[in-house]
Fold these 4 entries.
Entry 1:
Amino acid sequence: NPFKSELHVQTNNHEPSEISIYDLVSRKLLLQMFTGSAFINTQQLSNGIYIYEVRSKSGQLIRGKIVKE
């Protein structure tokens, strides 16, 4: 899952969702609303490991780690 300057997010439904990206000390660095899918500009993030959360309007939560190169 390494990415460079843009991150693609896609859900299996078309309800409003939000993605949050955190650094490893749990500081929220980015929050973006989207429906279905989105391309997120991540040029402001340094190379490293980040934690993401995708939360749908219905409350479904997906968490994981991503790596920026």
Entry 2:
Amino acid sequence: DHRSAVASLNFLRRVQFGPKDGEWAYGFRRRAKDGSFPQNMWVDGEPYWQGLQIDETALPLVLAYRLWRAGAIRPMDYWDMVRRG
């Protein structure tokens, strides 16, 4: 079902944090949120929990890769999302 998978990828691209979304703070370490995804979110994309886990950033990129390999998307259409992630 490539259509549902592409729709999910488009949703994730829409809710991906951008350069204006601030930064993650872990003690004295700071990391820009740009390119990451909410740890949890409501169905409208509004973040629910304010945390970061690596798999939330990695799995949308894996989905993009798998859809590209299946011929369901063009890499250039999702390159900005993948590059920032």
Entry 3:
Amino acid sequence: FALTCIFSSGCVPSESTLPTSTHSPIPTQTSTPEPEVNMNPAALLEIKNQGDGMKDPYGVAVNSAGNIYVNDAGKSRVLVFDPAGNLLDKWDAKGSGEGEFNSLGFGGLAIDSNDNVFVVDNENFRIQKFDSAGNFLAMWGSEGKEDGQFIRAIGIATDKDGNVYVTDDAIPYVQKFDNDGNFLMKFGGDGVSKGQFKHATGIAVDANGNIFVADYEAKRIQKFDAGGNVLAAWFMGTDIKVKGTPEAIAVDANGNVYVTDYDLGRMQVFDNNGEFLWAWGDGSLTNAPFKRPVGIAFDTSGRIYVTNQSGGNVLVFNLP
């Protein structure tokens, strides 16, 4: 987002038309002030599950019909809401079988172009794939640090081809799978050098296949190409001179990158290469529009959905 200033110039008459009096004022240049933009808009909708509520919600995703899927982590289930926030379904079967969640844990949700839903089933060390109605389709993963295994899988995203990317805050790699869970590649490594991770959390993929990863511990965001080569890296909190703690990350239709600050309850927005654009929340460290924000999603209308872990809700906004 850019705020455009429009300047209108005064005109100085030519010498042949200037009056003879030396006291006539020459028009001065004036400028139109920048328009004010509300960087803390009121939520259009608060989704809380009016039945038995939500506890520590984490991941959020929206399908092509506008239905909203939420990982209700504290209750180990996936909740499905319609666009108005009415509860449609609960995926709450307990266990380690197909379509079951043992203890869902903190993890993301992702939806592909066919509206298939991918759920990080953290405590079962696997990813599960469902159709939009919750019918089980596939699962993959086991406990370990080898290719295709997980310790604490957390972030998940899909690209336009349906490939699935997973971060693990105990394994310093991003793993890439095809739509059915076949391992394709990984990139990263333990460290703070460019291309490495200390505690990777949120992950997002833009329309060009670039991959953005939030690193909670290193307090930075990194951009990779589809082959896992690092293209850019930047830190949170440049606007207030305090390093933020990135958690969730998402990319809008214009390629801008949205990152939540877990500790300060803010959100920062960057262009596709990491240049700071604006922050949701002002420079005051006491102004926290969100309460431990851990999930971000967009719908096809450009509305943004933010999961508040401590608030026990999902807030829906029109973008400023």
Entry 4:
Amino acid sequence: MPRESPPSTLFGRRLRAARNRAGIPQDKLGVMIGLDEGSSSARMSRYETGIHEPPFATAQSLGRVLKVPAAYFYCEDDRLAELLIQYEMFDAQRRHQVLSLAAELCAELG
């Protein structure tokens, strides 16, 4: 099995992290988002290593399969990226609670 190159882009780093967290191989992930089976592994590898960045619609498909919002792939702040993952898991009521708490904390800042 060929050794994976380290991601050179933010998108690639986030994609690899989400894929590894989900335990999905590159080729299977590509097929799951509708890529041809024969090229899915190579395309995913190019996205992860930063050779290519997918169109936003592809990022959305990747997010749906990996259960992360598309914004996660582009988020520069690691803590905010983790918060996006947590937020994605919440139902509407909990999301409202999180937003209300954030608004309260901002109001305290003045």
